[in-house]
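Lecture notes, continued. The same structure-token format from the folding unit now serves as the input rather than the output. Read the line below as a description of shape only.
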């Protein structure tokens, strides 16, 4: 039984590594699937609060260095989050 748990842990680690790899498109594929499900359940305006969307911020270091911070965000206002 311990072998099965270890295998599950390894699969989880492998899946997370796959999702956070910036050279892999896995995160975008998963976000697209999540968006599709929300759109099947509610109107686009309401669903847009729950989408995992991209946010890109441009940073300029000095005069010759520019880099982009690409974040995944959910835009649901915090006051709509209910803690139980």
């Amino acid at each position: 039984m311990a072998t099965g748990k270890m295998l599950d842990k390894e699969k989880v680690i492998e899946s997370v590594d796959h999702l956070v790899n910036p050279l892999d498109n896995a995160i975008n594929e998963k976000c697209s699937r999540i968006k599709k499900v929300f759109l099947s359940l509610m109107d686009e305006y309401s669903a847009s609060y729950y989408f995992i969307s991209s946010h890109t911020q441009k940073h300029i270091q000095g005069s010759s260095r520019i880099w982009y911070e690409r974040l995944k965000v959910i835009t649901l206002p915090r006051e709509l989050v209910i803690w139980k």
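Point for the exam: The mean pLDDT is 83.
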